[in-house]
Amino acid sequence: MKFFKNYFRISLIVLLGILFVQPVDGWAQRDVSDIKQLFEERDREIKALLGPKGTEYTDEQREKLKNIINGNIDYGEMAQFALGDTYDELSADKQNEFVDLFSTIIRDQSLNKLDIYRAKVTYEDITVEGDSAFVSTIAEMDKVRTPVGYELEYEEKNGTQQWVVTDMIIDDVSTAGSYQRQFQRIIRKKGFDSLMETLRKRAAR
Amino acid sequence: MKKTTFVLVLLLFFCSYGTFAQDTVRVSMQEFIERGIENASQLDYEQQKIHLAENQIDQVNAKRYLPSFEFSTQHGVVPGVVSQRDDLSEDEYYLDPNLKNDWEDWAVFTRAEVSAAQPLFTWGALSNAVKAAKSAAVAAKEQFEQQKSDLEVRLIELYQSHILTNEIMRLLEEATNTIKDIEKQLEEKQEEGAEDFDESDFFKFRIFKSEFASRAAEVRESAQMTRRIWNYVLQAGEDTLFIPEESFLDPVTGELREFDYYRMNAVSNRSEIKAIEAGMNAAEYGLEAEKSRNYPALVLGMSGSFANTPNRPRQSNPFIINNANYLSASFGLIIRQNLDFLSMNANVERRQLQYRQTKYLREAAVDGIELELNEAYKNASLSKTKVENTDEALLISKKWLRQEQLDYDFDIGNTKDLIDAMKKELELRVQKRRDIYDFNTDMLELHRKSGLPLTPIFNNED
Question: What is the ipTM of this complex?
Answer without folding.
Answer: 0.81
